[in-house]
Amino acid sequence: MRIKVCGVTRPEDARLAAKLGAWAVGMIFVPETPRYLTLARAKRVRRAIPKGVLAVGVFRRPDVRELSRAIEELNLDAVQIYADEAFLHVFSTGKRAVFLEPRRTDADRRAGRGPSEKSRLAVWKKAAARGRRGARVVLAGGLTPVNAAAAARAAKPWALDVSSGVERRPGVKDARLLKAFFAAFPVRPKNK
User: How far apart are CA 111 and CA 162, in angstroms?
Assistant: First the structure.
């Protein structure tokens, strides 16, 4: 299973993700989020991502100049561009993937919790259907070491994208949780 570790804010977390077999490491450039990186901080993380692991910039409705500058200065391999929909696209060396992520309801937000189980199951079902039609589905949102294997079996995604499910606190990955997440998938294909 291809695994992207996203929301990486520290070089040591990027190195550990790569060592464990990450297909990609994501850096977030959305200012109002707790995992936001300035270009200066992102450069330190980028230097820790080894060759063979994709360096991904994550943006929400970016300014074209901001996007171009990040791609150039960080030598990004791919970008994810969020829109207001429940999915986003990845553009990388001509390949495109569809990201599917359960959304939190207003009740989830008020309670300070992630997406409901019902929302996750609906997205897993949608991911499986898109995959059967030939889409490269990257499943994200609410994944943890506890539910990742079940999500992969149910949704049959092309890749998984994990962030908060392997964190000690926002932006700081927990080595134990990262290792447990990767342990659920002992055989991973080479990066493609």
Answer: 22
Residue 129: count other Cβ atoms within 10 Å of its Cβ. 13
Angle at 15 between CA 137 and CA 1, to 5 degrees: 25
pTM of the full structure: 0.85
Query: Residue 104 and residue 113: Cα distance in Å, rounded?
Result: 8
**Rounded (5°) CA angle 130-131-136:** 105
pLDDT, one tens digit per residue, over 27-69 is: 999 998 999 999 999 999 999 999 999 999 999 888 889 999 9
**Domain residue extents for the chain:** 2-183
CATH superfamily of 2-183: Aldolase class I (3.20.20.70)
Q: How many CB atoms lie within 10 A of CB 31?
A: 9
Rg (CA), the chain: 15
Backbone angles phi, psi at 56, to 5 degrees: -115, 130
